[in-house]
Amino acid sequence: MTTTNNTPQTAPSYPAQVTGMDILVRALRMVGIDTMYGLVGIPVTEVAYIAQGRGIRFISFRHEQQAGMAAATHGYLTGKPGVLLTVSSLGFMNGLTATTNATVNCYPMIQISGSSVREPIDLEQGTYEGLDQLNVAKPLVKAAYRVNKPEDIPTAVVRAYRAAVSGRPGGVYLDVTTPCLGAIMNAEDADKLFYQPVDLCPAMPPAQEAVDRAVSLLAGAKKPAVIIGKGAAYARVEDKIKALIDKTGVPYFPMSMAKGVMPDNGPLSALSCRSTIMQEADVVVLVGARLNWLLSRGHGKWSPDTKFIQLDIDPEEIDCNRPIAAPVVGDLASSLDAILAGLDKTTMSMDPTWVPALQKETAVKNAKFAERLKANATAMPMDHWTALGVIKPILEANDDIILVNEGANTLDDTRDCIDMSKPRCRVDCATWAIMGMGMGSAVGAAVATGQRVVAIEGDSAFGFSGMDFSTICRFKLPVTVVIFNNGGIYNGIGQNMGKDGDPAPTTLDIHARYDKLGEAFGATTFYVTTPQELEAAFKEAIACKGPALIDVQLGADSGKESGHIGYLNPAPLETIIV
Fold first, then answer.
1. In the sheet where 35-38 sits, what is the strand order?
2. pLDDT by residue (tens digit) across 256-274?
3. Are residues 166 and 298 in the same domain?
């Protein structure tokens, strides 16, 4: 140390400093985020490291879309927003697919993407990854915000959280510019930015007049039914729905991801009587379900005389396809409590023959279904029903396993075959019926819950996300992936309509060995060609409670075009070939 006039000179002291990246991570911790999914690179790599250092688990992926599917599934299963972190430009756009899907399906999710410096983007001067990400995202998500200053980060995170979970949940985009991420603040000043937000997802009770109207309509119904949607599964109102069914004796049937909110094989389950309910029910209660294409938008087979009671948190959903006789707008827990209280003061008028008739129809159809499984039990090569006949009793005996499911025939047949008895144990491609959510959703389900996961995938569907099976292996997650390989989209027997000798548009590879992919990443793997081999492999795979992959060899002729929705094709192929 130097001295002047024999007086010691002390080194100057500077206040501790932090970056916008640290403030962002602390803001996420402030609202209770403990997990983040993503794929790093410029300008967000350091965010992931800081997140790990501050106790946020970071699950890194091979592709942003799958990381986003994981975040969305996390949000659906926990009720807290799943968080996706991406780089700018194409990384942002890859993730936006999942965030948009989360919005359509009402999953709470926040996508945080780094973005380039604003000025050259606004002047279109050709900067690095120069995309106006905020304006790209805005029409596709529930809410979108840009943060330019580190002082605004905590406010932006709280607003994003509230938007994601309140009202109808959805995907929120948070655009954080590179200058904001790299900005430096004194730590003491940054500390003053944080606070504990209050009531991030407030209850929204319905109007009493609406409740009274719904109770009166339901009590007077002769042939009522309850349709349970995935909104009810998300809202965790299974106990209240059970109370409603027990109190009224009304039959129910669930939408795909609501299977298990009430037991699929319960005495009042009308899962096999969908068409009958559409044609004959005079009053239908929609609980967290929407009259979208999955319910023929309230038209098609539906009786024009059916009256609907709709419980939904979003008033804009009411009357979107059919007039709703008794809308009950509010959160499902409050609405069901109010309706249960109202039913205590009234008496049901249900036709005494209605439920027995549905139970008889159910018994007949279930017997036919059992015969179908029995008839296909020894088919060689195996088809979808052969394989599902093996898996069904094992999976139903392990009812805490979360089932992830996608494909065409693989999706439809698995949904029809596997009974669910617990809520939030089925995750599939949902409202948009998109393929390519399998590995991401499997990771999100396993990380969010700690439960075992089984993903039953068509070979085509697996192709969208298969590389992220490596993520399952890298994080040693308790996930078993079952691939039904029939060699193609729908099936493997498509014919080339031209003369070039190329494969048909729907043809993949009947001889593919997907088990080798699992082997490459260190998973427990199986290649099976018989029901006996599949049974042994499936039991071993779920028992190992680690990464496992089963390649199930089906016949190339197993499956048909578009599963249950072939009617959506505009015309038969032969009518458009000249």
1. 57-60, 35-38, 82-86, 109-115, 171-177, 143-147
2. 999 999 999 999 999 999 9
3. no
